[in-house]
Amino acid sequence: MQKSTTLKGLLAVSAVVAMFSTAGVQAQTQPSVAQKDAAGQTGSNAKLSAGDEKAVKDMAQANINEIAAAKIALNKAKSSDVKAFAQKMIDDHGAALTKVQTVAEQKGVTLPTEPDAMHKAMAANLEKQSGDAFDKMYMENAGTKDHQMVLSKLQSDAKMIKDPDVKALADAHTPVVEQHLKSAQQMSEDK
After folding, report:
1. With the C-alpha atoms ordered 68, 9, 174, 178, is the resulting torsion angle positive or negative?
2. Rounded to an integer, what distance in angstroms lies between the CA atom of residue 142 and that of residue 76?
3. In terms of Cα–Cα distance, which of 23, 69, 53, 56 is closest to 180?
4. pLDDT per residue over 10-44, tens digit each?
5. Which of 25, 52, 93, 171 is the most exposed place for a label (fewest CB within 10 A)?
6. From the CB of residue 95, how many other CB atoms can be counted at a distance below 10 Å?
7. Which helix (H) or strand (E) holds 91?
8. What is the DSSP string of 165-177?
């Protein structure tokens, strides 16, 4: 019961963080577009630097990978807490992917559409598992390791991003990924 209450509390905090992050992205991107339009430029068609384009593609890939793994977890997880975590990943990463797709479309960036090779292999391994073994593998890989990797990449990319719309995306994604990582780590500790 305590574990379930703790998870619900963490998920509620995640939802609030995601809500405020969304408002921050909207607040940050609107003036940027308005300023470009006022200057007579079509900022939404501005070509991104190679680094900014890679950052957009990386954000999309991370979201696609998380959604794919979470869909497997919804079907195979034994624990209701793991299923709740998976649903949160689908909801949050689905919303984040939509925002990335919008910016990518404005900037003329073609995004990946399926999990990368490493995550396809992870999905194949997850499919072979069941019960507690599945829950453990999903939470260790998609829950903790992936979020650690994505957070590190977001933080390093954010220092190099030049485009204000891409920067706003990275800045908005970071606290959500941090919260997902904390939730995954908390669930692992409760086991």
Report:
1. negative
2. 14
3. 69
4. 444 344 344 334 434 343 444 444 333 333 333 45
5. 171
6. 15
7. helix 80-107
8. HHHHHHHHHHHHH
